[in-house]
Amino acid sequence: MLRHVAAGFDGSPESLAAAHWAAREAIRRGTALRLVHAWQPRPAPSVPADMSQSSWAEDMPARAAASLRAAHSGLQVIVQSVADSPVEALLAVAEQCDLLVLGSRGLGGLAGFLTGSVSQRIVARTPHPVVLVRAGECAADEHLSAVDGISPEEIPETPYRDVVLGLGADRPCDELIEFAFDAARRRGAPLRVIHAFSAPSAFAAVDSLAPVNGRELLAEREHAVIATLRPWCEKFPEVAVAEAVTEGRAASQLVRASTGAALVVVGRRVREARLGTHVGPVAHAVLHHAPCPVAVVPHV
User: Domain 152-300 adopts which CATH fold?
Assistant: First the structure.
């Protein structure tokens, strides 16, 4: 089977940014790009008066594909138009591709997340990695600033910005760590690993009859992170790794680290909650507040 990167496309600015990000990722991976437009057979205000809805559903992604081929030389683009619910269609696409890339409006607030956009609902349900991209994201945003105002498109050697990984050292996930190392390797970029922890409360310390030593706890966490990453550093020796272990909220640390990053990689534990499948508080916060693309990697 031909492996590929897939991008959901509905004509919105965020889906166009996602399609171009997916095109660059497909080139990095040496694979084809599958551009997927899911639509439902019902009146749509954006359909021109002189076109049927089915013709419009085929024409819109075809024109976008032509633009992608022109912008990314040598890229193979496969167009797929599906008459189905966007969520169900893209969940099926996620089963057949290496990576699914979607646009994100970055809705804020708990209510906005629970009612959710198509992208957020797919992230919460699929057991496969998904990257969410904001509107306006472009190739230059993935690279460090070039000298004399020359864009990275003109100088391909301009270094990539860091890839950031949010790591929980208590239950590290191989799929999550490998995804981040591989993303950094493909870009020739440094990998910045963020691990944040909360010190036990005073009540917990009293219950355990053991004093809480902040320095010792920090050292323990640092050793745990280094031990977790050691086999991956050996597997990916070309990736420069920097670890940051701090006390505090993981979500806040990752959102802060995402500024100036090429990509943030977070995990989503696969489980069913009282309100249904969800992404977890850390991934939820990063998806809504990180300015750069966010990869969500499900794991058990």
Answer: Rossmann fold (3.40.50)
Does residue 35 contact residue 79 with C-beta atoms inside 8 Å? yes
pTM of the model: 0.86
Lowest mean pLDDT among 57-66, 123-132, 188-197, 264-273: 264-273
The full DSSP string for 60-121 is HHHHHHHHHHHHSTT--EEEEEEES-HHHHHHHHHTTSSEEEEEE----SHHHHHH--HHHH
| Cα gap 283→264, rounded to integer Å | 10
Q: Which amino acid is at 208?
A: S
Distance set, CA 243 to CA 60, 68, 121, 258, 300 (Å): 44, 37, 32, 15, 24
> 53-90, pLDDT tens digit by residue?
667 677 889 999 999 999 999 999 999 998 889 999 99
pLDDT tens digits for range 165-193 = 999 866 778 999 999 999 999 999 999 99
**Does residue 68 contact residue 35 with C-beta atoms inside 8 Å?**
yes
Q: Could you tell me the residue ranges of all domains in the chain?
A: 1-137, 152-300
Architecture per CATH, 1-137: 3-Layer(aba) Sandwich (3.40)
